[in-house]
Amino acid sequence: MAPRALSLQAYLAYARSSAALGSGPAAQTWPERRPGTLIWGHAQGREAARALVSLCTRIAQQRPEVLFVLSGDAEPPPDVPHVVLPGERSSDCEQFARALRPDFCLWAGSQLRPALLHAVRETGAHMVALPPGDGPWACPVPRWLPDPTSATLALFDVIHCPSETTRRQLRRFGVAPANLRLSGPFMDTGTPLECPDAQHEEVAGILAARPVWLAARVLPDEAADILRAHRRAVRLAHRLLLILVPADAQDYDTIARITQSEQMRTCHWDSGESPDENTQVLLVEGPEELGLWFRIAPLAFLGGSLIPGRGGSDPYEAAALGTAILYGPNVGRHLSSYTKLVEAGAARIVRDSDSLATAVSHIVAPDQAAAMAHAGWDVVSSGAELTDAVITEIFDRIDSEEAR
């Protein structure tokens, strides 16, 4: 028996004898197993959870008959059960596996559960490990036990590795090369916001002669700083136009009053007005048409980020539509997404109206905005490739089983 198998056997023996391993209740009532293909997805961490829910949503859109059960940090849609996993005691894990009998396991997290994953594997599930975003795969075990991480990873039919280094390391640890896939990061890039082609062509024609930047999902407390930044940027590019989109339509009147107090020449788009050569700000009522404005503007500041409390807005909806990104320091809800984009050169942080004005003046130049937008598109595309690969793998196996 190989050393990696021995390490897992030692762990399973420990799990059979221990009454309090891992986390979760010792026993609970699991969701009733309905007939049909069932996917069990587990996510660890906010970004992995969003990516997993997005992946399952895409599967459900194409295969409505597929059933789902989610666990961990994933927040499922109302019609999808969420379960609290048992601890690592073998009997509890086996009860969970027999109750769910998943056809597929999608594991999106670095912390592995050897007893649980072994029990699910024994039911015949197709096991897929997705790239962890919060560190390398590991098994939290007592120091006196041999490390079962490699043997636990060997339980998976497919392991999507985040890098060539990880793939080489797993091969050295004895994981079968045929089970390893070199993949991009596992992240929720979302579905690009929609916009009718005819509307885009019309608005692009109206604004064709103007350099444009966008402030999207703006809070009232941010509006004055954004307008002051625009006033400074206009000194260097006097024809520069700001498209200002509130985070909520209820904030429209408040932000309109702020633009008036700042003495900005404003076009109220949803009132039927069109910008002329003297317009400084095009004020939109709400975020419903952001798919249009991200396509129009080569550069966007993403609101909810200059002041504490909101946590920022999703940067991938801008990056997916080819927009360079500026953002404030308060993006805790989407920190890992912004970090990826910054590392790729697709986003830049600003601290206040002065730094925002400087960044706008520099990046609104077509070559600068295009370079950042291209970098953002590369990030979004890398995540989409992994999602597409997993969906194709699942559908191929479903079709193969149905053909038997």
Overall description:
The protein has 404 residues and is an alpha/beta fold. It has two domains: 174 residues, Rossmann fold (3-Layer(aba) Sandwich); 185 residues, Glycogen Phosphorylase B (Rossmann fold). The chain is built from 14 helices and 14 strands. It has a seven-stranded parallel sheet with strand order 3-2-1-4-5-6-7, with helices on both faces. A seven-stranded parallel sheet has the order 10-11-9-8-12-13-14, with helices on both faces. Helix 8 crosses helix 9 and helix 8 packs across helix 13. The longest helix is centred in the C-terminal third of the chain and has 38 residues. The radius of gyration is 25 Å and the shape is elongated.
Q: H/E order of the elements? A: HEHEEHEHEHEHEHEHEHEEHEHEHEHH
**What is the CATH superfamily classification of the largest domain?**
Glycogen Phosphorylase B
User: Cα-atom Rg, whole angstroms?
Assistant: 25 Å
Instruction: State the low-pLDDT regions, or none.
Output: none
In CATH terms, what is the fold-level topology of the largest domain?
A: Rossmann fold
| Strand residue content | 5-15%
Q: What's the domain count?
A: 2
CATH top level label of the largest domain: Alpha Beta
Helix/strand/pairing category: alpha/beta
Q: What does the overall shape look like?
A: elongated
Characterize the largest beta sheet: strand count, sense, and whether it forms a barrel.
7 strands, parallel
Instruction: Give me the side-by-side strand order of the main sheet.
Output: 3-2-1-4-5-6-7
State the distance separating the first and last CA atoms.
34 Å
Helix content: 40-55%
Count of DSSP strands: 14
Second-tier CATH architecture of the largest domain: 3-Layer(aba) Sandwich
- Determine the number of helices (DSSP H or I, runs of at least 4 residues): 14
Mean pLDDT: 90
